[in-house]
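Annex B, item 7. Sequence and structure tokens for protein A, then protein B.
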Amino acid sequence: MKEKIKENLITIDELSETSGVKLKQLSSYVRQGLLNYKRQAKDGTRYYDKGKALLRIREIKRLEKEGFTSKQLKDYFPRSIFEIIEELEE
């Protein structure tokens, strides 16, 4: 079971290689709350759900081609749980 779970999780470097999107751009998506990691290891490595992340990246790229701005992208996708928690802590 653990092996199956591991197969579905990839690092941002692997995500960059698989999706063809530069690491810097993916990091920007993460900072903007457009791309969320599923799990974080003790060493700080973040793991992304491969299928969901690839679908999200594909959708982001499509919307960017249609002319969506960063703000419009943030409004288009639901807020991440981290943004909600941050808001509540203020």
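Protein B:
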Amino acid sequence: MTLKDTGFPLPFQVSFICLLILQIRSRLHAALMVVAGVLSLFFKEFLPGNWTIVVTALVTSSVGVLVQRKKPQKRQRAESMIKRLTGKA
């Protein structure tokens, strides 16, 4: 697949990549962007039309929500352990 295969001129593709890079706020964001890219290439082979975009967005956002929900639990456990170790109530 080359840049010409997407049907968009190069300036649109470069602008999209720049906007995407500006959205990276953490390692989680970067990892999800990579996952979305890999999934879209994978689904492109098996799904017709624009279903690739829809399915990739749903799967990636679901993975992001699941990972984000796990984070606060780990943080709460770490904070409670620190309180126990330091003797603070």
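Comment on protein B: The helical segments are 10-22, 27-44, 51-86.
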